[in-house]
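Could you please consider the sequence and fold appended to this message?
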Amino acid sequence: MSPSNVPPVPNVPPVPHRVEFLRHPHPGLPHLTAWGIRIDGTDLRVLVAEATRALWGQEIDEDDDTPQERDEFLLRQHAPLHLVDDHDGARARAHFLGEAPPELRDRNTGALCLLSCPCGIDECWPLLAAVRVTESAVTWSGFYQIHRPQWGELPLGPYVFARPAYDEALAAPIPLAEDPLAPLLGME
């Protein structure tokens, strides 16, 4: 069949990704509730570590650390979002549906903080992304690190989640006793 005889490809909607929200105490600050995220079963911090590996490689002398130390650094660059006074999950539900408070948004782009700084101050070293919410879907796209503008948009996503499944995951976060990456981060 010649290229002119090939039938057009129908517009097939993307297969939605699966999101899980996780709740656990912050390891050093038990008054903070940590909200972690898994996309298609993988912790978002693992996805970010892989997306930023080459970028950090341009800034850090690899001879100074072992491969294990570099991997741990990449996983530790972000932490789950810390939300004070969120015992009922209301702040997290509003946040992840696009109603983030001003301190958890980029005032120039409107992007939301999805991951936090390990120090416990969300806006210190945030992972930001555009969050678009419609009746049928929630889309996370345009991931970036505000303190590294030279990196540009990170090679993550876009992630499209079916709205009903997203709402269900947000309404019933998985309760955990500790950070699921604790064994990889030497926190046991």
About this structure: Helices lie at 44-57, 67-76, 90-96, 163-171.
